[in-house]
């Protein structure tokens, strides 16, 4: 028997015309205490926004049971790295 899901959910995204990908992503992760629902908006649009959103989602999926403040701080740190990389023209330091 398949266990019943804690929640039913769905998501729809759409990239802007002319863009190959969207900077809006989401993740739903079960934890010991319930469910973490993350809605991520990589500011801007296109590939750069999508890269930032993927980075934040990766953080949330890596440790969904961590305290919320810790998750926000970890996402911030991950996005600072992306911003520095993009600010350097994508070439790294």
Radius of gyration: 15 Å
Percentage of β-strand residues: 15-25%
Return the string of H and E elements: EEHH
Q: If strands are numbered along the chain, what order do they take across the biggest sheet?
A: 1-2
Helix content: 25-40%
User: Main sheet, how many strands, which sense, barrel?
Assistant: 2 strands, antiparallel
Q: Which word captures the global form? A: flat
- How many H/I helices? 2
Helix and strand content put the structural class at: alpha+beta
Uncertain segments: none
Distance between the termini: 52 Å
Please state the average pLDDT score: 86
Tell me how many strands there are: 2
Can you describe what's shown?
Helix 1 runs antiparallel to helix 2. Strands 1-2 form a two-stranded antiparallel sheet. With 93 residues, it is an alpha+beta fold. It has a domain of 64 residues. The protein starts with 23 loop residues before the first strand and ends in a 6-residue tail after the last helix. Strand 1 and strand 2 form a beta hairpin.
What descriptors fit this protein?
two-stranded antiparallel sheet, single chain, flat, 93 residues
Compact description:
Helix content is 40%, strand content 15%. The protein is built from 2 helices and 2 strands. The radius of gyration is 15 Å and the shape is flat.
């Amino acid at each position: 028997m398949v266990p019943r899901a804690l929640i039913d959910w769905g998501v729809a995204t759409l990239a802007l015309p002319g863009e190959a990908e969207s900077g809006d992503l989401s993740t739903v992760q079960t934890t010991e205490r319930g469910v973490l629902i993350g809605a991520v908006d990589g500011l801007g649009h296109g590939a750069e926004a999508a890269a930032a959103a993927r980075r934040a989602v990766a953080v949330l999926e890596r440790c969904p049971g961590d305290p919320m403040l810790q998750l926000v701080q970890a996402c911030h740190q991950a996005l600072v790295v992306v911003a520095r990389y993009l600010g350097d023209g994508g070439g790294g330091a």
